[in-house]
Every structure is written in C-alpha cells, then in structure tokens.
Amino acid sequence: MAKAKFQKVTKAIIPAAGLGTRFLPATKAMPKEMLTVVAKPIIQYAVEEAYAAGIREFIFITGRGKAVMENHFDHPYELADTLRKKGKLAELKLVESVLPADAKVYYTRQGQPLGLGHAVGCAAGITQEEPFAVLLPDDIIDTSQGNPLKEMLAIYNETGKSVVMAEEVAPDRTNQYGILDLGGTGIKNNRARVKTFVEKPEPKKAPSNLAIVGRYVLTGRHMAQLAKTKPGRGGEIQLTDAMIEVCKKEGFTGYLHNGLRFDCGDKVGFQMANLYFALQDPYIAGRLQPFLHQMAERHDRRQALREDEIKRRKTKSKK
Ligand code: G1P
Asked: CA–CA separation, 145 vs 132, rounded Å?
C-alpha cells in the first residue's frame, strides 16, 4: 500500500460550549447540543458524520452545565444491562450505537466565552501538531447524498492543505459568515483555491457570497497560529483570523457543498431539520405527511380569508 504523503487526520474537535440563548427557556438547564432532532440529540449527528468519514477521536469543547452531554457519550452500564435482561435488543443497539467501541472521546472546557478560535485552541494540548477536523454541531448535514467531510479529508490527503466547506448564501447574508475570497479564480469539481477570508463582511464589502459553513479540515499549523491570534471581530478570538494567516503560508481549498444543511442554531433551521429527518422515517412520515398537507391547506384558507377581509374593508372605505 502506498504510504500517505501527509499526516492522517484522526481527530475531530467539536465546539459545544455555547450558551444556546436563542433556545431559551429550553436551554436554561439543558445544553443546546442535546436538543433532539427527531430522536437524536443535535450533537450526535456531527459525531456520526465524522465517524463515517473515518474520524475515531472526538474532542468536545464543553463548558458549565454540559455534563449531560458527557453522560450521553458514556457507556450506560445499568441501562444496557437492563435492556439486555429484558430482551429489548433493538433499544440496546440504539444505546450502544451512540459511540462505537473503537471511538475515543476527550472533553476539555472552555472556561470563558472568548470566541470560536479560542474554543478550538483549547484542544491544542490534545491535537499537538497533528492536523484535525472541526465540526460545528449546529450545522446538521444530510449525508444520505454523500458525506462532505469525507470528501474534504480526501482533498486534504491529496494536497496536504487545509480545506473548508463553503456554501453559496444570499448576498445580503454575508455578514453572518466567514466569506471566501477566491481572488478571481473559479470553482472546478466543487473545489476552489482560496486567496483569503473575510469574517462577516457587510454585503457591499463581501468578496463573494461563498460562506464558510460548519466543517473544517485544518493543518497542524493552526494551533500555533491560534495561540498568537489577538481578539478580532466582536472582541472574540476568531478561527477565521488564524486561517487567514495560515492561508498566506500554505494555501487553502474551499469545498463547495451542494447538499442539504440545516442550521440548528436557529429556530427555523431546527424545525426544518426535525421535519426533514422525521419524513425520512416511514413510520412517522405515514402520519406526519397528511398532517402537514392539512396544516398547509388550513394556512392557505386562513390567508385567503384575511385577504378577502382586507379587500372588503378597502372597498367599504372608498364608498
Ligand atoms: C462561525 C465562524 C464563521 C462561520 C460560521 C459558520 O461564526 O466565525 O466564519 O462562517 O461559524 O457557522 P458564528 O456562527 O460562530 O458566529
């Protein structure tokens, strides 16, 4: 077998220290990452995606109040034993599949909310100089049409350069994302050579509408760079700022993702993810689909009544 040219990526960092204020009061005592999309916590989707892409070591960046997440990825001896004794083997399989036996987990705390770059940097002692992946668990990817992280790892293995996942966003939303500057070069086979990045530019100043979304494969140099990175936009230590510096020295590839992604950091995206994944389950879909049609019809009827009422009032006021 040919020897890999570049050091293999075996570790993924999953930042999960956020307060989840957009989901209050649900997140008052419950980590946002543990909210469920159908019957799985949000964070489990990221772990399954990374595992399927070949990652075997998971580094969770946690904070106060996140212990329940550690319990989720622990081996529940008593529960497993009870399910086994009761012959509930399907349920036992679900419990055991949360973390396959050959996966290893590390937890490290981000003591202060100093930004995504700071959160990732908290794992420096574990990754040392190795390259690593970063998955932002708010972004759930539909992997039924392909696993983008797997593609990104393949690109890294081929080029030895960092890879970031990008998606086209509406031009008026560039100030919500890190944006790719391709310096005038194009996209070929879903890949683009990145000139630099700009963190959350206003639409008028954005070099493109290609946004960084939730998945990164980063070379080992990033940890040393993060250690030197000063607070940037919003007074936070930005991962994008460290990437800009590494990009100058090593280059960077943008991987354009065309599949479905749900932003579960947002209430709308979270509901969409729930509906989408629920409709993939034949048992749920059988009852949910007619209900959704019914709701849509009801909504249309109400809307029509409202419009009629507005027209009626207008004609009345003209008379
Ligand atoms: C972070 C990054 C940004 C990236 C985004 C993807 O921003 O700083 O570059 O586009 O994640 O979700 P945040 O969403 O933490 O504000």
From this structure: 24
Q: For ligand 1, atom 9, which residue shows the shortest CA distance?
A: 178
User: In CATH, which of 3.90.550.10, 3.10.180.10, 3.40.50.1580, 3.40.50.20 is domain 11-280?
Assistant: 3.90.550.10
For ligand 1, the distance from its centroid to the CA atom of residue 178, given in whole angstroms, is 6
Distance 213 CA to ligand 1 centre (A): 7
Ligand 1 center from residue 209 Cα (angstroms): 14
Name, in order, each residue with C-beta under 8 angstroms of 152's C-beta and a sequence gap of 6 or more.
Answer: 133, 163, 165, 215, 217, 255
Given this model, what pLDDT does residue 18 score? Answer: 84
Quick one: tokens of 116? 């995504």
> Which residue has its alpha carbon closest to ligand 1 atom 10?
177
Query: Ligand 1, residues 14, 33, 110, 116: which to mutate, most atoms within 8 A of Cβ?
Result: 116
Residue 2, SS3 per DSSP: coil
Would you place residue 3 in the very low, low, confident or very high pLDDT band (cuts 50, 70, 90)? low
Residue 314: which pLDDT band, with cuts at 50, 70 and 90?
confident
- The model's pLDDT over 217-257, given as tens digits with 9 standing for 90+, comes to 999 999 999 999 999 999 999 999 999 999 999 999 999 99
CB of 150 within 8 A of CB of 54? yes
Query: What integer pLDDT is reported at residue 221 of this predicted model?
Result: 95
- Residues flanking ligand 1, CB < 6 Å: 116, 136, 177-178, 199, 211-214, 238-240
The set of residues, in sequence order, having a beta carbon less than 8 Å from that of 35 and lying 6+ positions away, is: 20, 23, 26, 27, 41, 42, 264, 270
Q: Both tokens of residue 82?
A: 């009870």
pTM over 0.90: yes
Please tell me the residue having the least CA distance from ligand 1 atom 15: 116
Gap between the Cα atoms of 265 and 272, Å rounded? 12
Check residue 265 and report its DSSP letter. Answer: T
